[in-house]
Structure formats: C-alpha cells, structure tokens
C-alpha cells in the first residue's frame, strides 16, 4: 500500500499540513553531522588558533540560533516552541573530523526533527566558514537523524 503524502493537496500541489487535530505531546530528536578537515585545520581548531575565533563555541551557538529559525528556512515547516536545543561539537583526531550532535525537545503537535537537523547543518556550515581561510577543501559529510520520539509515528532510532 502506497503511503499518502501529507504535504500534497488533492491536485498534487505542495501545501502546509494542518496539525491542529494532532495530539500535543513531548517530542525529541537527535541529529548528527560530520565535518572532515585537514590536519592543519584540525590543529588550528583544537588549539583555538583560528583567526575568526573559537570555532567550536561559535558553531555551537550558530546551531542553536539556526534551530530557532527553522520554520523561516524550510518551506512548509511549522513554527514550533522549542523547549530545549543543545548542540555539541567534538574533535575526533583519528578521523580528522569535527563531530556535531544536536538534541531538540518540544511539547507540540508536530515533530522537531527539522530543528535538530537544521542545528547540525548550520553548525557544520559555520565550521566551514570559520576555517575556509585555512583550507577550502573541508568537506561537510554525513548529516542524519539519529533518533526521534513522540508523535503518531512513534520512536525512531537509527541502526548502526
């Protein structure tokens, strides 16, 4: 059986889903992004020697700020109250990556996955922007939803 798309009207045109009939409940989402950097960028970030400033702190706040603006960035995305958003950046020397994780929580009628994904995406772009003067070959890698809870579709946990 084909799953009906909720963002398409009877004429096949995109429209915003009416969530007014949905139950309000606690919903959470976790997302991940990875930024692959050169040895030079890795060391500059680790030693806080990037000319634009503290990359990890600024990217963290960029991610938080972006999550709060998700409905302005993603067409048809509802503006929901975010009760918690956290972004964590961690250096992985072995992989030469900056790993970014976000956690978002709301008590709303619709999910918060887009906010979690926006947070890691913008944090990753901020890392790139702050480090591009050192090395433009930095690659923003995998961006993915790790988990979600709440709502009609229930729990999702990404497999390994």
Give structural notes.
The structure is a single chain. The chain has 160 residues and is α+β, with helices and mostly antiparallel strands. It has a single domain, classed as Molybdopterin cofactor biosynthesis C (MoaC) domain (Alpha-Beta Plaits). The protein is 28% helix and 29% strand. It is built from 4 helices and 5 strands. A 5-stranded antiparallel sheet has the order 2-3-1-4-5, with helices on one face. Strand 4 and strand 5 form a beta hairpin. Helix 2 packs antiparallel against helix 4. It starts with 24 loop residues before the first strand and ends with a strand. The model has no long low-confidence stretch (mean pLDDT 93). One of its GO terms (biological process) is Mo-molybdopterin cofactor biosynthetic process. Its EC number is 4.6.1.17. One of its GO terms (molecular function) is cyclic pyranopterin monophosphate synthase activity. Catalyzes the conversion of (8S)-3',8-cyclo-7,8-dihydroguanosine 5'-triphosphate to cyclic pyranopterin monophosphate (cPMP). This is Cyclic pyranopterin monophosphate synthase.
């Amino acid at each position: 059986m084909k799953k009906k798309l909720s963002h398409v009207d009877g004429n096949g045109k995109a429209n915003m889903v009416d969530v007014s009939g949905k139950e309000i409940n606690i919903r959470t989402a976790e997302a991940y992004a990875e930024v692959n950097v050169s040895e030079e960028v890795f060391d500059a970030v680790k030693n806080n020697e990037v000319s634009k400033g503290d990359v990890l702190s600024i990217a963290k706040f960029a991610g938080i700020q972006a999550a709060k603006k998700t409905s302005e960035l993603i067409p048809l995305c509802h503006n929901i109250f975010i009760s918690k958003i956290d972004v964590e950046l961690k250096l992985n020397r072995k992989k030469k990556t900056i790993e970014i994780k976000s956690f978002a929580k709301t008590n709303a009628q619709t999910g918060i996955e887009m906010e979690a994904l926006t947070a890691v995406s913008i944090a990753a772009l901020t890392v790139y922007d702050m480090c591009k003067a050192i090395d433009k070959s930095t690659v923003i890698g995998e961006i993915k939803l790790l988990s979600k809870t709440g709502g009609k579709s229930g729990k999702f946990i990404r497999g390994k």
